[in-house]
Structures are given as C-alpha cells and as structure tokens.
Amino acid sequence: MAETSFTFDSGQAQLFLNTVTHFLQAHPLESSIALVAASLGGYMLRRMVAPAYYPNIDGPSSKSVTFGHLFDIFSPESIPFHDELQDKYGSVCKVNGMFGMLNPVFTAKHMKSLVAVFNAIAQDMKRSMIQDIGSAPGKEIDMLKWCSATALELVGQAGLGHRFGVLEGVESPYSIAIKDFFPAITKVIPLQAFFPLFYNLRPTALQRKLAEWAPLSSIRRIKEIIDVQDKQAQMILEQKKNGLANGPVDIDDGKEPHDIMSILLKANMEADEKGRLPEDQLLGQMNTLIFAGHETTRLAVNFRFFIRYILTLLL
C-alpha cells in the first residue's frame, strides 16, 4: 500500500496567516460576531455531550441548555424556586450553571485568631471618627463613609493581610474601585445570566474588546474596576509569595500571618501539582474575597446603626 506523505510548507502557512490577519483587520465587526457565534456554539455543544460531574446527585431539570438554572436563581421572583430546592431535595442538590469556588477557612479557631486584628481596626475607626468630629458639638458625620472604610480595612487585613490605610485618609485607585464596583454591578443585574456565556469566549482578549465596545457605560466602568483590582491583586500576591518564601512572618508585627489569603496560598504551595490552583484562580479568589467581605460587612454595620436609630426614636 502506498503511503501518503504530507509536507509542511512554511511559506504557505505564513501566507495563510497573513490572509487571516488582513481579513480580521479589514472586517473587525464581522470577525468578532463570527468568533462569538463559534464560541457559543462550542460551549453549548460541550454542555450537551460532556458527562455530568456529579451523576448521583439529584436536582431539578434544566429548562435551558444554554443558561441552565441561572434565570431561576437570579430572577426577582425566584423565592419559590429556592424553597423547592430545600423542600424537595434537602441540603444537597444539583443545579446547572456557571459557578465559582472559594475554599473556606472560616473555622472557629481561625476566626478567634483574627479578634486582635478586628479590635485594632475598631480602635482606629474610633480615633478617626473622634478626629472628624473635632471640637464641634453636635456635628453630624457620614457614617456610611466610615463604615465603608472600616469594612475595607477589615477584609483587607483579615482577608489579604494588606493594609489599605483608608482609615488614615489614604485614598487609592483600588479603594475607589472597590467602592464603585457594587453601584456599577447593580446597573447590569438584569444581564447577569448572560455573563457565563461571555466568560467562556476565547481568546480572552475578545472578552476585553467586547467590554470596551459595550454600549452601556456601566459595563465599561466594570472593566476599568476589574483592571484596577487585577493589578492590585497581582501586586499583593507577589508580596505574599515572597513573604512565604522567606518564612511565614508578617511584615507589620513579626508574627506568623493569620490572614485568609496567606493560609490559602501556603496550602496551595504545599499541595501536589494536580490539586494546586492556578494563579489566575488565586487572583480571582482574592478579588471575590475583597468584594464579598467589604459589601456584606459595610451593609451589616450600616443597618445596625440604622436599627439603633429607629429604636431610639420609638423608645
């Protein structure tokens, strides 16, 4: 039987690449639409043919191949759906969609080690508020500002082992981005079920271009905020890596760090190659930790002060 031989001509390959590059430059919009359509088609095909990760866990049937249960979870009328999950499937069930993972380290022992950090930040908040009031009797102060600054410092030191200095009046692009993120994200909540589709688009540079070309200013602002967060997270991650490489010592007080990121990073460095998280996931966890911790703490403290004020008026 005669063997068929294939020869690789580098000149033809270069000509093909030049042709493709010229077409992309000449037709950027059409090329972007084609890439989006191809990526969505590949994502949907993979969803349909790939085996289930947890075949033995029961859950509600998915109404959409593309979105899974995302619309059911995030809909303003989703309370009956959540009640059904608890009543019908109990404490564990399977839902379809795009979800992330944040390794928990919120054990009682670890939280106890952070009490000293919380105490010190509370004292800093007290001193800053007293300084803001000054000698003016009956002066009104903006508690929303102080609660937001305190929450950012709490989650920064306890979560990342990083001091932002916002209680001392230091405003950085990162602290401003953190404060602007929630107002910006609330403007695009009706579109959040579409986010997983764009998340799976490849190459990643296409996602950034689509965000830059978005007609909504809130989406463009979210991209700017994410860029600032990513830059700051990379800087903190490098500091953490260097600190752990030189020994588990905290720069501020010379003791072993107890922040969540140091514990996660140390465990990740000690894990085997198969179970180790890649750097992009570590960066994503850092930004998720900051956003979730800042917003929940800020809102909880603000609401506590509001309830106290209401009770004062009623009693």
UniProtKB/TrEMBL annotation:
Family: Belongs to the cytochrome P450 family.
Molecular function terms, GO-annotated: heme binding; iron ion binding; monooxygenase activity; oxidoreductase activity, acting on paired donors, with incorporation or reduction of molecular oxygen
Pathway per the UniProt entry: Secondary metabolite biosynthesis
Cofactor: heme
Pfam families: p450
Keywords: Heme, Iron, Metal-binding, Monooxygenase, Oxidoreductase
Species assigned in the record: Thanatephorus cucumeris (strain AG1-IB / isolate 7/3/14)
Transmembrane segments annotated in the record for this chain: none
Protein name per its UniProtKB record: Cytochrome P450
